[in-house]
Specification:
The complex is a heterodimer of chains A (483) and B (462).
Chain A lengths: L5 H6 L3 H11 L6 E17 L2 E19 L2 E7 L4 H12 L33 H18 L3 E19 L4 E18 L4 E10 L12 H16 L7 E7 L6 H8 L4 H5 L20 E4 L20 E6 L2 E2 L6 H7 L7 E2 L8 E2 L3 E4 L6 H6 L3 E13 L5 E13 L2 E6 L3 E5 H4 L3 E4 L4 E2 L5 E4 L2 E4 L1 E4 L2 E9 L6 H4 L2
Helix pairs in contact in A: 2-3, 4-5
Chain B lengths: L10 H20 L4 E17 L2 E19 L2 E7 L4 H14 L36 H18 L3 E20 L4 E18 L5 E3 L2 E5 L8 H13 L10 E2 L2 E3 L1 H15 L1 H5 L20 E4 L20 E6 L2 E2 L6 H7 L7 E2 L7 E2 L3 E4 L6 H6 L3 E9 L9 E12 L2 E14 H6 L1 E4 L9 E2 L3 E3 L3 E3 L2
Parallel strand pairs in B: 9-16, 15-20
Antiparallel strand pairs in B: 1-2, 1-4, 2-3, 4-5, 5-6, 5-7, 8-22, 9-21, 10-11, 10-15, 11-12, 13-14, 16-17, 17-18, 18-22, 19-21
Helix pairs in contact in B: 3-4
The chains are: A alpha+beta (483), B alpha+beta (462).
Chain lengths: 483, 462
């Protein structure tokens, strides 16, 4: 145990204290207890009307205590890290159990840690003037892109989260998790119409990422391009048709249609449309889907999850066959399966649950151009606003922010925001072509579940779905797009 | 099982926090700020979830945090912290003063004019300590009874995501360098059930129902809530797809709320001054059908959107947003009001950090005279929407396309459940096409809408 020990240094904690708190948590019995210490510092900046109108910084710190007894969870937290308040929280959480006191495992064990985001200077500690430069450059670039760009908002946000997780099973895990992101949104206007565009990206990266790999100009140009393009967009068709998804962010389809339904808590409770489908075909054999928390610098990656378990690369669907679920400690124990390191939480105020990290489909063999050429009439969707799923009946929805008509194998006119709707357990069975161009998103995804938001990544190669419902408004096209 | 009692309602602490807020403002001013504003929040929460009769989670805690916004002339910045130690507060203040030096001069920046500050008198029926009055076992029993009523309602209810009981209280203090200081407390409690029904073929459907109130005494009975949850879930069983069609669409009150939300985003002063709203520049113009009247009222006693003052210390008020289809007012905070040359409507919403946003008070569509049944009875073929999925709304252009499920209307009656469909149109036309408004306005949150019928939408299916 020779790492930097943030909470030991800043709050005078030591291993004896931690053992004492865990003993208090198990004072009424219970099978398991853990403590989650969090210290989060963050910065955000926004430029609007070419002015830095808003700048803020903040710090929040606290400790959450969880006690598990059978299937029951007791939880309490405190934002005061004094021994009295942590003990009070531990005794409150302990009330879930009713039995003789248990003794936690003596002596913590720290597993060898990965280093997926080894930043030397966390962006949250970098010079604020450099961050101001980023948002101002984004503003200028977006305005310079086209004179029809009338409104620009550019924002930059970063944070550094220190966590320490200790548990009655001997778990001891510490991590420092940087996260940074830029966003640029634009409005383009002509006398006849107006349209919006937005772009952003980042990851668990240092500030230099935005001065090298992905510059403010890159995001600004992309945002402005989308807004200008949408000025001339036609109404989207309605009805079932062939849909081609472009590479990258359209992987949000996997997140909604598949990923949530494979989170182990829903399957333990048998409330997911995927319940009982392990070993069964849920996709065409061209589809292989993983959830991978171990990708360096990625927004959805973690060295350890919020229960102290190392993250991993988990096979969800292999050549169309459902292989496994995403689990946390509680689901793993109750279902008798391995913990995949997907126990995550928004903050110390929240109970962890199974969540995705970076979820994507592996590349296939087809040339993306051939995929488009194979479509007679359909929709090519390359950017999405977001999506939502009903876990129980499997229905999912997501909204395209940049999409085009495909006519006779050629991409033709851009179309206005169309909604795609389908059924999770069978949408991937209709995937007939998978491109060789796997791409991950730029690093802007945030997933919400039970009121808890966590950063995630998605990815996909170009794919063709033979039949999907598109919800547009075009009346004259309806007939020709019906099957 | 028992639960620890929370330390709530300590009047001494309240006074201390008010003093602390004023002290932080004074220290910001002596540190060189030309204006300053401090907000302190103190929150307690309790929640329990019972699933299939067994307690699944029990959560209980409290937290507090402080935020400060400082101005150097026309430059502003904000910081926040959960650390109330002297060192923590000092650090928050010095960071804010540093940060304000790097922001831009914005001629419209500032806190409201001193003449605008104030608070509504009285306690407005917002705080009832009885939300915590139940002993621990009773709280669990509320959750258990709510779930049980749903599970027992019909043998096809075979599973459940649980029954819950939640309670919370919040205490907010706001002080600024123009002499305003105010505080208020609010309480909240709710019960809910999320049953799952299954057909013989194994297809599952889930729905929910809930009751929410500021006082425990105003909560509906667990049995009533559980029963409605079961009924809402059962009516979805056996849902089918439909063919793409252009038919009248009836929105049940829970989903009709979303149409009001879109109007809110359209009249939100922040979107308006940026020209990012399809309603920008439409003051005094007809934007909706004659029967459409939309009100925002932050003063209603006991309301979920009620407070004595807004996020900038301006007393809340009643604002007519749309009258007989004509746009009468935007909803504004002081910044967007200055940008537009108007007066604030006391809709500032203040988080811990950043500049104040704009939020609703009690915001609603005035009810009509027809019952929901009568509205449905007038439709030969149509869609009754009970749930939306996804976020396909573009407020710049008004383009609207959302995933939906609900019940098909045939011969003036609810005939069978439908799902995996989309509802699409453009908001500019949708507001004009609100052809009927129900008499069933009921507040289950700050935003409330009766049943409405909208014509001219595309229902996308097979």
């Amino acid at each position: 145990m020779d790492r930097n020990r943030f909470f030991f240094q800043h709050y005078g904690l030591n291993e004896r204290d931690l053992e004492r708190y865990l003993a208090a948590a198990l004072s009424a019995g219970g099978d398991y207890a853990d403590l989650y210490f969090e210290y989060l510092s963050s910065t955000s900046l926004m430029v609007d009307e070419s002015m830095v109108k808003s700048a803020s910084q903040g710090i929040s710190a606290g400790c959450g205590v969880r006690v598990i007894a059978g299937e029951r969870t007791g939880y309490a937290y405190t934002d005061d890290l004094s021994p009295e308040r942590i003990l009070h929280a531990a005794h409150t959480a302990a009330l879930i159990a009713s039995g003789p006191a248990k003794t936690p495992t003596v002596g913590f064990q720290e597993k060898p840690a990965r280093s997926l985001y080894p930043v030397t200077l966390p962006s949250v500690d970098a010079e604020i003037t450099a961050k101001v430069e980023l948002v101002m450059r984004a503003d200028s670039a977006a305005r310079a892109y086209d004179r029809r760009i009338k409104e620009v908002r550019a924002s930059y946000a970063d944070e550094l989260r220190h966590i320490l997780v200790v548990a009655s099973d001997g778990t001891f895990a510490e991590d420092s998790q940087p996260l940074a992101r830029m966003n640029v949104s634009c409005i383009a206007k002509t006398d006849a119409s107006s349209a919006r565009g937005s772009s952003g990206g980042g990851g668990r990266v240092a500030l230099d990422f935005f001065f090298g790999e992905k510059t403010p100009e890159y995001f600004a140009n992309e945002s402005a391009r989308q807004a200008i393009l949408q000025l001339d967009a036609r109404e989207a068709p309605a009805g079932e048709m062939e849909v081609v998804l472009g590479p990258g962010w359209p992987g949000v389809l996997l997140h909604e249609a598949i990923g949530h339904g494979l989170e182990a808590d829903f399957n333990r409770k048998q409330t997911s449309a995927f319940t009982g489908l392990i070993g069964k075909r849920v996709a065409s054999e061209k589809c292989t889907v993983v959830d991978n928390g171990t990708m360096p610098w990625r927004r959805g990656s973690l060295n350890v999850d919020d229960e102290g378990q190392p993250t991993q690369n988990t096979m969800l669907i292999e050549k169309g066959i459902l292989k496994g679920y995403l689990s946390d400690k509680l689901s793993a124990r109750l279902m008798g399966v391995a913990d995949t390191g997907n126990g995550r939480r928004e903050s110390y105020e929240h109970i962890p649950m199974p969540r995705m990290t970076n979820t994507y489909m592996l590349a296939g063999e087809e040339d993306p151009q051939d995929i488009i050429h194979s479509v007679k009439r359909g929709v090519y969707a390359v950017n999405f606003g977001g999506g939502q799923v009903d876990i129980t009946n499997g229905k999912f929805v997501f909204s395209a922010s940049e999409a085009y008509l495909i006519e006779d194998g050629q991409i033709t006119a851009p179309i206005k925001g169309a909604t795609l709707i389908g059924n999770g357990p069978d949408v991937l069975t209709r995937v007939s072509m998978v491109g060789n161009d796997l791409k991950l998103d730029e690093g802007v995804g945030t997933c919400g579940k039970d009121g808890q938001a966590v950063p995630v990544g998605v990815g996909i190669p170009t794919i063709k779905i033979d039949r999907l419902t598109v919800g547009g408004t075009a009346k004259k096209d309806v007939g020709s797009f019906m099957q | 099982m028992s639960t620890a009692q929370l330390e709530t309602g300590n009047p001494k602490l309240a006074t201390d926090l008010k003093d602390l807020a004023q002290d932080i403002v004074r220290r910001a001013m002596s540190g060189g700020a030309t204006a300053a504003e401090c907000v302190i929040r103190e929150d307690d929460e309790f929640s329990t979830l019972v699933r299939l009769g067994q307690v699944e989670t029990l959560k209980e805690s409290g937290s507090k945090a402080v935020g400060v916004r400082v101005f150097y002339g026309k430059r502003a910045a904000s910081t926040y912290s959960s650390d109330f130690s002297r060192a923590g507060i000092d650090r928050m203040l010095s960071s804010a003063l540093e940060l304000a030096k790097i922001t831009s001069e914005d001629p419209y920046a500032g806190i409201p004019d001193p003449s605008q500050f104030g608070a509504l008198p009285g306690d407005l029926d917002l705080y009832f300590p009885d939300v915590y009055s139940l002993p621990g076992t009773e709280r669990i029993s509320y959750a258990r009874r709510t779930e049980k009523a749903a599970l027992d309602y019909d043998p096809r209810i075979k599973n459940s995501e649980g029954g819950s009981f939640d309670a919370a209280t919040g205490h907010k203090i706001l002080a600024n360098s123009h002499g305003f200081v105010g505080e208020y407390r609010r309480s909240y409690c709710s019960i809910a059930a999320v049953p799952i029904a299954q057909t013989e073929s194994g297809a599952m459907q889930r729905d929910y129902w809930f009751s929410v109130a500021r006082s425990l005494s105003r909560l509906e009975s667990p049995e009533k809530v559980g029963t409605i949850a079961a009924q809402r879930t059962l009516r979805r069983l056996g849902a089918r797809k439909v063919k793409t069609a252009h038919v009248p669409v009836v929105f049940d009150p829970m989903v009709a709320n979303s149409i009001l939300d879109h109007i809110f985003e359209g009249v939100n002063g922040d979107s308006v001054y940026r020209g990012a709203s399809f309603l920008a520049g439409k003051l005094g113009q007809k934007i909706a059908g004659d029967s459409v009247n939309v009100i925002d009222d932050g003063t209603m006693p006991g309301g979920f959107g009620t407070s004595p003052f807004d996020g900038e210390g301006v007393p809340t008020r009643r604002t007519v947003v749309i009258e007989n289809g004509v746009l009468k007012s935007y909803l504004l905070n002081s910044y967007s009001a200055r940008k537009l040359g108007l007066q604030t409507t006391a809709n500032a919403s203040r988080g811990l950090a950043g500049t104040p946003g704009i939020g609703p008070g009690n915001y609603f569509l005035q009810p009509g005279t027809k019952t929901p049944q009568a509205i449905i009875a007038g439709i030969p073929e149509g869609l009754y929407v009970t749930e939306f999925l996804g976020h396909g709304v573009n407020l710049v252009t008004g383009d609207y396309s959302r995933g939906a499920s609900g019940l098909w209307i045939s011969g003036g009656e609810l005939a069978y459940p439908v799902e995996e469909i989309t509802v699409a149109g453009n908001l500019k036309e949708i507001f004009f096409n609100i052809s009927e408004i129900g008499n069933d306005l009921e507040f289950r949150g700050a935003v409330a809408c009766p049943t409405i019928r909208i014509d001219g939408l595309t229902v996308g299916g097979e």
